[in-house]
Amino acid sequence: MIDFNTEKKAEYVQKMFSAIVDKYDLLNTLLSLNRDKYWRKFTAIKSELKPGGRAIDVATGTGELAIELAKLVGANGKVVGVDFVKKMLAKAQEKIKNTKYEKIIEFIAQKAENLPFLDNTFDCATISFALRNVTDVKKTFEEMTRVVKAGGKVISLEFTQPKNFLFRKIYYFYILKVLPIIGGLVSKRKDAYVYLPNSVINFPSKEKLKKIMEDVGLKNIKIYNLTCGVVAIHIGIKP
For the purposes of burial, counting CB atoms within 10 Å of the CB of 204, is it exposed (0-12), middle (13-18) or buried (19 or more)? Predict the structure, then answer.
C-alpha cells in the first residue's frame, strides 16, 4: 500500500487511472451494481443548477458527472471538467464528441488543488469519487469554494463507511476481497482495485469531512446517505 501522506500518491494515482481508463466506466457500473448512475444523477439534482448556469466538476475523470450537470444548465450554460489525468480527459472528450454536450462542456488538465479560474466564477463546484485520490483534501475544498460565487454550492459525492455494524462487515468483505478480484480480472490491474477500497477505509469519516468543509468557510452543510450509507453526499454553501 502506498503512503497516503506523501506526494508519491499523486504520481501513483495518475499512473493508475491512466492504466485503467478503458475499463473505468464499465467497472464503476459493475462494481457498484449499477448504482453509480443514480448517485451521480441525485448529486446533479441537489446542485439545483438552472438553465444557463455555470458549474465546475473537479477531478472529473471520464466526465460522467459533468454530463449530468450539462443536462441541467442546457445549451446556454457551461460546465468545466478538470482532471490531472490526461488519458481520463481524452476518454471524456471522446464520450461527448458529436453530442449536444460538446459545446457545453470543456475539459481542462489541472490538479484539483490549483484550479485555473478567478474567484466567484461558478454557480456550483462538484467532485465525485475523487477526494480520496487528491493529495490535500482541505486545499481542494478551499479551491472549490474560492471559484464558486457567494450563495453557490460545493458538493462532494464519495464512498464512506456504513454505520450499521453487520452491513459494514459485509461491505468491507465485498470491497476488500471481492472487488479486487473482479476489478483485477477486468482491468488487468489488480493493484488499482486493491488501492481503491483501501482508500475508502482510510478516508476521513463523514463527520470529519463536514468539519473540513466548515474550516474552509462553507456553511449549512447537509449530508445525504445513499444505498445504506455506502456513499455520502456533502453539500456546503459559500456565504
Answer: middle
163's CB contacts (< 8 A; 6+ apart) are 229
In 3D space, the residue among 131, 136, 144, 138 whose CA is nearest the CA of residue 56 turns out to be: 144
DSSP structure string for 141-153: HHHHHHHEEEEEE
Report the 10 Å Cβ neighbour count for 166: 8
**How many Cβ atoms sit within 10 Å of the Cβ of residue 217?**
15
Question: For 7-31, what is the mean pLDDT?
Answer: 88
pTM score, two decimals? 0.94
Domain that holds residue 91: 8-161+204-237
Cell triple for 191 = 493493484
> Does any domain span residue 218?
yes
Determine whether 165 is exposed, middle or buried from the number of CB atoms within 10 Å of its CB (0-12, 13-18, 19+): exposed
DSSP state of 175: I
Answer whether residue 29 is part of any domain: yes
- How many distinct structural domains can be found in the chain? 1
3-state secondary structure of 62: coil
pLDDT grade, residue 144 (50/70/90)?
Answer: very high
